[in-house]
Write a structure and sequence with these properties.
The chain is globular and about 60 Å long. It has 336 residues and is mostly helical. The chain contains 15 helices and no strands.
Amino acid sequence: MESGQEQLVTIGLQPETSVLDAVASSSESSPSTVRAWCYLVWLSMQRQARARQMVLIALSLLIFTFTLVALNTAGGRWTMHRWRAMRGGPNFQQAVDHMQAGAAVASAAAPLGTGVTEAVLTAAQRAMDDSAFAVFSRWMVYSIFVGFLLPIWSLSFATEALGGEREARSLVWLLSRPLPRPAIYAAKFVALLPWVLGFNLGGFGLVCLAAGEPGRQAFALFWPAVAGATLAFAALFHLMSAVFRRPAIIAIVYAFFLETVLGSMPGYMKRISVGFYTRCLMFDAAQDHGLPPPERPSVYLPVDPLTAWTVLLGVTAVLLMVGMVVFARSEYCEDV
């Protein structure tokens, strides 16, 4: 029987999946399934750290988005001051300035009766000054982040959990180890969670940080919804990696059509997308801060937060169980 130090050296020199053999032989007693499972989780987390093509794409999108948001912040484009009611006309700030100048002249000529006008102009100016959070949330968070970046970043890691094993042609060898297939599937899912949660929440935090004060407010309100959506996306794309030979391609098609396109359509069809329930949680969190949904409730048909959380967490659990069953019953002999 090898000493503990010699076994660690052996584990470091052998292929990654041989760690399960080393764990099984590391004790004179019967092999520990729990220890083998924990080692598989640890090794899978290490494997996720190795940058793949999709992970590099996710990093590139993060850098591009961070730069774009930072440029808009530097240019002061998160407020409504530069918006125009019509093409070629003055922007909102110029219009308010002109009306304030006219109100000042009218007040000098006729002091009485100008109080209502001044109150309206003051309210308009205050609304423009406080519009940064609303503009950033609607344009960046609701549309670009939830509809595109969040699913893309999630699939970059989730499809690698089993897809990387299949590309390396080590999945069949891994399945021959003394661990039940559902346990292997669950270990891969647990191992990808720190990476996908860290990247999505960290990436969202960086994007919000680049937006300044409205971004910090958005992160404080919306990060729970981002975490819930990440769990659902991770379970969905992990299932795809067990079903399809090229899961990244299928996941990208899903992200573009079901999340980006279908998730923005009016009516009930959007309710099959994860992004819909994520936005519902964000709408509810932002209502107390003066930000209503981007559409009329009768058009968007949002659900309450309890329903949204139930769907997101329920979908995560159901997809995880379905994935275990599919993974246990599938044949992967073509990967040899």
